[in-house]
Protein backbone atom coordinates (compact mmCIF):
# COMPACT_ATOMS: atom_id res chain seq x y z
CA UNK A 1 0.00 0.00 0.00
CA UNK A 2 1.27 3.49 -0.84
CA UNK A 3 2.24 5.28 2.38
CA UNK A 4 3.68 8.54 1.11
CA UNK A 5 1.79 11.81 1.41
CA UNK A 6 1.52 14.08 -1.61
CA UNK A 7 1.22 17.70 -0.47
CA UNK A 8 -0.15 20.24 -2.93
CA UNK A 9 -0.19 23.98 -2.35
CA UNK A 10 -3.18 26.12 -3.30
CA UNK A 11 -2.69 29.86 -3.52
CA UNK A 12 -3.58 32.97 -5.47
CA UNK A 13 -3.94 36.68 -5.01
CA UNK A 14 -6.71 37.80 -2.70
CA UNK A 15 -10.03 37.71 -4.54
CA UNK A 16 -8.72 35.34 -7.20
CA UNK A 17 -10.88 32.44 -6.03
CA UNK A 18 -8.59 30.03 -4.20
CA UNK A 19 -11.18 29.59 -1.45
CA UNK A 20 -13.75 28.58 -4.06
CA UNK A 21 -11.32 26.00 -5.44
CA UNK A 22 -10.76 24.74 -1.88
CA UNK A 23 -14.53 24.40 -1.44
CA UNK A 24 -14.76 22.38 -4.66
CA UNK A 25 -11.93 20.09 -3.54
CA UNK A 26 -13.54 19.50 -0.15
CA UNK A 27 -16.76 18.68 -1.96
CA UNK A 28 -14.85 15.85 -3.64
CA UNK A 29 -13.87 14.42 -0.27
CA UNK A 30 -10.30 15.70 -0.42
CA UNK A 31 -8.45 17.15 2.57
CA UNK A 32 -7.75 20.88 2.38
CA UNK A 33 -6.00 22.60 5.29
CA UNK A 34 -6.68 26.34 5.28
CA UNK A 35 -3.58 27.99 6.71
CA UNK A 36 -5.31 31.37 6.85
CA UNK A 37 -7.97 29.82 9.09
CA UNK A 38 -5.26 28.16 11.17
CA UNK A 39 -3.65 31.58 11.54
CA UNK A 40 -6.92 33.13 12.73
CA UNK A 41 -7.30 30.41 15.38
CA UNK A 42 -3.70 30.76 16.51
CA UNK A 43 -4.15 34.50 16.86
CA UNK A 44 -6.70 33.80 19.62
CA UNK A 45 -3.91 32.51 21.87
CA UNK A 46 -3.06 35.03 24.63
CA UNK A 47 0.69 34.98 23.93
CA UNK A 48 0.12 35.54 20.20
CA UNK A 49 -2.30 38.40 20.88
CA UNK A 50 0.29 39.98 23.16
CA UNK A 51 3.05 39.67 20.56
CA UNK A 52 0.91 41.01 17.69
CA UNK A 53 -0.23 43.99 19.77
CA UNK A 54 3.35 44.72 20.81
CA UNK A 55 4.59 44.60 17.22
CA UNK A 56 1.73 46.85 16.10
CA UNK A 57 2.24 49.32 18.95
CA UNK A 58 -1.10 48.44 20.51
CA UNK A 59 -2.05 47.36 24.02
CA UNK A 60 -4.73 45.27 25.69
CA UNK A 61 -5.57 41.60 26.06
CA UNK A 62 -7.78 41.44 22.97
CA UNK A 63 -7.04 41.73 19.27
CA UNK A 64 -8.73 44.53 17.34
CA UNK A 65 -8.57 42.83 13.94
CA UNK A 66 -9.77 45.85 11.96
CA UNK A 67 -7.16 48.10 13.58
CA UNK A 68 -4.42 45.50 13.16
CA UNK A 69 -5.32 45.02 9.48
CA UNK A 70 -5.06 48.75 8.84
CA UNK A 71 -1.64 48.83 10.47
CA UNK A 72 -0.34 45.75 8.65
CA UNK A 73 -1.34 46.98 5.22
CA UNK A 74 0.03 50.45 5.88
CA UNK A 75 3.44 49.45 7.24
CA UNK A 76 5.40 46.73 5.44
CA UNK A 77 8.03 46.47 8.18
CA UNK A 78 5.42 45.71 10.85
CA UNK A 79 3.57 43.31 8.52
CA UNK A 80 6.73 41.31 7.88
CA UNK A 81 7.52 41.20 11.60
CA UNK A 82 4.04 39.84 12.40
CA UNK A 83 4.32 37.29 9.59
CA UNK A 84 7.71 36.17 10.89
CA UNK A 85 6.10 35.57 14.30
CA UNK A 86 3.10 33.67 12.96
CA UNK A 87 4.38 31.64 10.00
CA UNK A 88 6.49 29.07 11.90
CA UNK A 89 3.59 28.33 14.28
CA UNK A 90 1.09 28.08 11.43
CA UNK A 91 3.28 25.75 9.39
CA UNK A 92 3.90 23.51 12.40
CA UNK A 93 0.14 23.20 12.80
CA UNK A 94 -0.15 22.27 9.11
CA UNK A 95 2.29 19.40 9.58
CA UNK A 96 0.22 18.24 12.56
CA UNK A 97 -2.89 18.29 10.33
CA UNK A 98 -1.00 16.32 7.66
CA UNK A 99 -0.01 13.66 10.18
CA UNK A 100 -3.63 13.34 11.32
CA UNK A 101 -4.93 13.04 7.76
CA UNK A 102 -2.32 10.38 7.00
CA UNK A 103 -3.50 8.37 10.01
CA UNK A 104 -7.02 8.51 8.56
CA UNK A 105 -5.76 7.06 5.28
CA UNK A 106 -5.56 10.19 3.16
CA UNK A 107 -2.65 10.48 0.73
CA UNK A 108 -3.44 13.67 -1.19
CA UNK A 109 -3.48 16.77 1.00
CA UNK A 110 -3.95 20.38 -0.09
CA UNK A 111 -2.41 23.33 1.71
CA UNK A 112 -4.44 26.49 1.08
CA UNK A 113 -2.90 29.86 1.93
CA UNK A 114 -2.68 33.37 0.55
CA UNK A 115 1.04 33.69 1.37
CA UNK A 116 2.42 30.30 0.36
CA UNK A 117 4.93 31.86 -2.02
CA UNK A 118 5.75 34.88 0.15
CA UNK A 119 6.49 32.63 3.15
CA UNK A 120 8.62 30.29 1.04
CA UNK A 121 6.62 27.30 2.27
CA UNK A 122 5.74 26.28 -1.28
CA UNK A 123 9.29 24.89 -1.48
CA UNK A 124 8.28 22.19 1.03
CA UNK A 125 5.28 21.05 -1.05
CA UNK A 126 5.22 18.64 -3.96
CA UNK A 127 3.15 20.77 -6.34
CA UNK A 128 1.59 24.22 -6.40
CA UNK A 129 -1.76 25.34 -7.83
CA UNK A 130 -2.05 29.06 -8.51
CA UNK A 131 -5.52 30.52 -9.05
CA UNK A 132 -5.55 33.70 -11.14
CA UNK A 133 -8.06 36.38 -12.08
CA UNK A 134 -7.76 39.90 -13.53
CA UNK A 135 -6.86 42.45 -10.85
CA UNK A 136 -10.00 44.47 -11.61
CA UNK A 137 -12.18 41.44 -10.81
CA UNK A 138 -10.18 40.67 -7.69
CA UNK A 139 -10.54 44.24 -6.45
CA UNK A 140 -14.30 44.25 -6.93
CA UNK A 141 -14.72 40.85 -5.27
CA UNK A 142 -12.67 42.04 -2.30
CA UNK A 143 -14.67 45.25 -1.90
CA UNK A 144 -17.97 43.35 -2.05
CA UNK A 145 -16.84 40.52 0.22
CA UNK A 146 -15.11 42.50 2.98
CA UNK A 147 -17.13 45.72 2.72
CA UNK A 148 -14.01 47.87 2.41
CA UNK A 149 -13.24 50.89 0.27
CA UNK A 150 -11.16 50.98 -2.90
CA UNK A 151 -8.11 52.39 -1.11
CA UNK A 152 -7.95 49.53 1.40
CA UNK A 153 -8.56 46.96 -1.35
CA UNK A 154 -5.61 48.40 -3.28
CA UNK A 155 -3.37 48.28 -0.21
CA UNK A 156 -4.21 44.62 0.42
CA UNK A 157 -3.64 43.62 -3.20
CA UNK A 158 -0.36 45.52 -3.46
CA UNK A 159 0.90 44.02 -0.19
CA UNK A 160 0.89 40.56 -1.75
CA UNK A 161 3.35 39.27 -4.31
CA UNK A 162 2.45 39.50 -7.99
CA UNK A 163 0.86 36.81 -10.14
CA UNK A 164 4.03 36.92 -12.21
CA UNK A 165 6.04 35.79 -9.20
CA UNK A 166 3.51 33.08 -8.28
CA UNK A 167 3.37 31.73 -11.82
CA UNK A 168 7.14 31.28 -11.92
CA UNK A 169 6.84 28.56 -9.25
CA UNK A 170 3.41 27.16 -10.19
CA UNK A 171 3.00 23.61 -11.42
CA UNK A 172 -0.69 24.15 -12.25
CA UNK A 173 -2.69 27.29 -13.08
CA UNK A 174 -6.46 27.68 -12.74
CA UNK A 175 -7.96 30.76 -14.37
CA UNK A 176 -11.02 32.16 -12.62
CA UNK A 177 -12.02 34.92 -15.01
CA UNK A 178 -15.49 33.75 -16.06
CA UNK A 179 -18.10 31.60 -14.29
CA UNK A 180 -18.00 29.30 -11.27
CA UNK A 181 -19.15 26.50 -13.56
CA UNK A 182 -16.06 27.01 -15.72
CA UNK A 183 -13.84 27.00 -12.64
CA UNK A 184 -15.47 23.77 -11.43
CA UNK A 185 -14.79 22.14 -14.80
CA UNK A 186 -11.14 23.19 -14.59
CA UNK A 187 -10.85 21.61 -11.16
CA UNK A 188 -12.45 18.39 -12.43
CA UNK A 189 -10.00 18.29 -15.34
CA UNK A 190 -7.06 18.77 -12.99
CA UNK A 191 -8.23 16.00 -10.66
CA UNK A 192 -8.84 13.61 -13.53
CA UNK A 193 -5.33 14.25 -14.78
CA UNK A 194 -3.95 13.49 -11.34
CA UNK A 195 -6.07 10.33 -11.07
CA UNK A 196 -4.61 9.09 -14.34
CA UNK A 197 -1.06 10.09 -13.44
CA UNK A 198 -0.90 9.06 -9.78
CA UNK A 199 -3.44 6.28 -9.60
CA UNK A 200 -6.65 6.03 -7.59
CA UNK A 201 -4.80 5.21 -4.36
CA UNK A 202 -4.53 8.96 -3.72
CA UNK A 203 -8.24 9.58 -4.12
CA UNK A 204 -10.65 8.56 -1.40
CA UNK A 205 -13.89 9.77 -3.01
Count of alpha and pi helical runs: 10
By secondary-structure content and strand pairing, the structural class works out as: alpha/beta
Averaged pLDDT, please? 91
Total strand segments? 5
Largest sheet: 5 strands, parallel
Per CATH, the class reads Alpha Beta
Taking all Cα atoms into account, the compactness measure Rg is 18 Å
Task: Note the topology.
Layout lengths: L5 E7 L5 H10 L3 E4 H8 L3 H11 L8 H8 L3 H28 L4 E5 L3 H4 L7 E6 L2 H12 L3 H10 L3 H7 L2 E4 L4 H19 L7
Parallel strand pairs: 1-3, 1-4, 2-3, 4-5
Helix pairs in contact: 1-10, 2-5, 3-5, 7-8
Task: Give the key terms.
205 residues, alpha/beta, single chain, 10 helices
Q: Would you mind describing this structure in some detail?
A:
This protein has 205 residues and is an alpha/beta fold. It has a single domain, classed as P-loop containing nucleotide triphosphate hydrolases (Rossmann fold). It is built from 10 helices and 5 strands; from the N terminus they run E-H-E-H-H-H-H-E-H-E-H-H-H-E-H. A 5-stranded parallel β-sheet has the order 2-3-1-4-5, sandwiched between helices. Helix 3 runs antiparallel to helix 5 (76-103) and helix 7 (135-146) packs across helix 8 (150-159). The chain is globular and about 55 Å long. The relative contact order is 0.21. The mean pLDDT is 91.
